[in-house]
Amino acid sequence: MVDVIRHIIVRGKVQGVGYRAWLAGEAEARGLAGWARNRRDGTVEALLFGSDEAVAALITKCQHGPGMARVSGIDNQPVTEDMLKLRTAGETFSVLPTI
Fold first, then answer.
1. Catalytic: which of 6, 30, 38, 39?
2. Is pLDDT at 87 greater than 90 in this prediction?
3. pTM summary value
4. Distances in Å between the alpha carbon of 14 and those of 44, 55, 83, 91?
5. How confident is the model at residue 93 (pLDDT cuts 50, 70, 90)?
6. Which position among 6, 11, 20, 87 bears the catalytic label?
7. Alpha-helix residue ranges (DSSP H) falling in the chain
8. How far apart are CA 73 and CA 83, in angstroms?
9. Which CATH number covers residue 24?
10. Active-site residue 38, yes or no?
11. Quick check: is 97 in a domain?
């Protein structure tokens, strides 16, 4: 099992529908670390760290998100571990403030 880190940006109707909290719950259920936050441009940005299989499965599930979300696309790219430092100390997966 190989660990990967992926940086995703989710576009569509993804703010005001509980997307970040949903994403955090889904990540924690899969044993993933990382963070999620809203961006002022209306997207949700997230960093996912864990097994390749679990990260890939969550990214696939992110294409639908919670019930009220309407995802129009996901940008997905690898990144370095430095971005994990944005997590809140002591948390495995953090919901961060909007940037």
1. 38
2. yes
3. 0.94
4. 7, 19, 22, 23
5. very high
6. 20
7. 19-29, 52-62
8. 22
9. 3.30.70.100
10. yes
11. no
